């Protein structure tokens, strides 16, 4: 069963969107397997966004992400990585469809509320980076109503 790393960014936390974002993943049928509020250090965030090092917006991105706590989560379910990305919407909220998280709540690419892993490989790396303590195991009783 596929897992993805989803994060509410500092602007999403400050704007009171944590419950709404968690609710969307719950309602869609995904299983919550990890969750915490963390104020990440710039060093930790530079590891998370290592692929973007060198981009002109990188320093601003790290400063934004370190400006307050984030909500770090792991969600599991069918095609979790791809479906998670489609629920977030396009990176630039001006291009995000209404009905997506960014399309409903954001306008600026540098304040786009949420993060979602872009591949299964990166999801596993991000889960290891944000949850080195490991992940709780439990049976999701709803699963029999969500899957054939
Ligand atoms: P994440 O889920 O946060 O990884 O976003 P993404 O995968 O949709 O986009 P990407 O990984 O390419 O960029 C990471 C983050 O950097 C974006 O979510 C934006 O917050 C920020 N970012 C990307 N491109 C730009 C840009 O052109 N300008 C600014 N200011 N920020 C950008
Ligand atoms: Mg990305």
UniProtKB/TrEMBL annotation:
It comes from the Eukaryota. Residues 1-137 form the Nucleoside diphosphate kinase-like domain. It is an enzyme of class 2 (transferase). Keywords: ATP-binding, Kinase, Nucleotide-binding, Signal, Transferase. ATP binds at residues 9, 57, 85, 91, 102, 112. GO terms for biological process: CTP biosynthetic process; GTP biosynthetic process; UTP biosynthetic process. GO terms for molecular function: ATP binding; nucleoside diphosphate kinase activity. This is Nucleoside diphosphate kinase. It comes from Dichomitus squalens. The chain holds residues 32 to 179 of 179 of the full protein.
């Amino acid at each position: 069963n596929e897992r993805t790393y989803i994060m509410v960014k500092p602007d999403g936390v400050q704007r009171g969107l944590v419950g709404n974002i968690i609710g969307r993943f719950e309602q869609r049928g995904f299983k919550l397997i990890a969750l915490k509020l963390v104020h990440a250090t710039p060093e930790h965030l530079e590891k998370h966004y290592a692929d973007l090092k060198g981009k002109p917006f990188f320093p601003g991105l790290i400063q934004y992400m370190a400006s307050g706590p984030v909500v770090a989560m792991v969600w599991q379910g069918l095609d979790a990585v791809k479906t998670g990305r489609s629920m977030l919407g396009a990176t630039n909220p001006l291009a995000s469809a209404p009905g997506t998280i960014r399309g409903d709540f954001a306008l600026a690419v540098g304040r786009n509320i949420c993060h979602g892993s872009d591949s299964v490989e990166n999801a596993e790396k991000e889960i290891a980076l944000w949850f080195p303590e490991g992940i709780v195991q439990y049976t999701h009783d709803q699963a029999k109503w969500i899957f054939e």
